[in-house]
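Dear Dr. K.,

Following up on our conversation at the group meeting, I've run the structure prediction for Transcriptional regulator from Macrococcus carouselicus. I'm pasting the input sequence below exactly as I used it, so you can double-check it against your construct before we proceed with anything downstream. Let me know if the numbering doesn't match what you have in your notebook.
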Amino acid sequence: MPDEILEFEFEDAYRLLDEVQESQFLDFKSKEIKGKGIQKIVTAFANAEGGEVYVGIKDEKEPVLEVLDRWNGFEKIEDANSLIQNIYEHIEPAISLEYEFIKIKEHEFRGLVLKIIVFKSKDLHYTSDHRVYIRRSAQNLELKNQKEIMDLQLSKGIISYEDQLLGNYSSDELIESESLTQFLNSYSPKTNPEEYLKKQRLIRKSGKELLPTIASVLLYADLPSAILSKKCAIKITRYNTNEDIPRRENLGQQFTVEGNIYNQIYLALECVKTIINELKVLSQDALIGANYPIEAIQEILVNAVIHRDYNISDDIHIMVFDNRIEVRSPGSLPGYITPDNILEERFSRNPTLVRLLNKYPNPPNKDIGEGLNTAFQKMQEMRLKSPKIFVEQNKVIVILPHERLAEPEETVLEYLEQNIEINNRTARKLCGIHSENKMKRVFLRLRDRNLIEMVPGKHGASTAWRKTNINK
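The predicted structure tokens came back this morning:
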């Protein structure tokens, strides 16, 4: 239990009550909520993308004399014990969360609000009466049938869609496919198709039949789109606009890329490269050729193909605008992955695709687990702003903006507006510069303009710089 009570300034509390609305990630509940009610909310958040619930704040629809009357908290911390106990003892499996109590400065009589922070979970969580809920928009919806629950498990990566067997496509057809033959021609040690598929668990017995898995079709069938009931191609569209929402008249060329996922990746990449080569962007009042790092585009595309949710019947969409490239991948982020931790954490929804795609010659996922980090690095090296990653309407969206980063000198000065000093290592990381000497020359140019100076007493590896007006 938290030892300290967080104190809100009056203005912050008023803003929370008056301006903030319930959403996919936020809920307000009165302190009268029962144990089963709090279980429902918390499991719904954990089963979706996570979120926060404030207990002790009346719903905005409840009639009150003034806005601040919505803050109707607990008299003391112990009054919330039963709710906290309900969360920790009656939800299966246990949920990862944090909580704290909040009061309003000089308005302590309004009570303590319990703020519960629920993290996205890799597990499927049940309430004490064995019900499953998920947060959608500002609602906590119950999943009432087994198909809905299974779809959620597939989305989270608890069970794998790629391992399911196909009844409408024979293993003999797969064994004779041209794609599998081409792959095995370069595979070592030499093996025959059926032996390879059995060893990799890509064909399995179902009764008396030997059936292929969905992963095997995606990897080695000549045209998976014609076999699978769900869409699995890549759509590429050129929009002649900078607008966030393009209009029909902005629509340019459109392409559909099909085939096994290895061929899809490289064909789609070539298609995007061709479009980019014809693309012009405005720079300092002149039109110049767009210059995107191809490695970044490839890593984003590969990530979309190997981590998308193939249980959702939709294609991957690549949209090339005048000022950006957007890649939209079906399905939310798997497991406990969020846009905030995606560069540090690892969780694969389709581990078989990831592993076996890496066995191809010139594998597109050569650096397993480092793809997105490479994309960020390559954008920075080309002095472009970092990719933006977010989840929207059950899609993962990655945007590569064609916007120039600030010059290194500007970046250093901006950092020193908020920090006392900066060293070479920190500056290189901020500016995307790998060379220590190149970064040193940036410092020297700023010094020569009398904007920064060396911090006295720091030499060698500990050398640091500060703004020239420090202590003057």
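Two things stood out to me. The first strand starts at residue 6 and ends at 8. The chain has a mean pLDDT of 90.

Best regards,
J.T.
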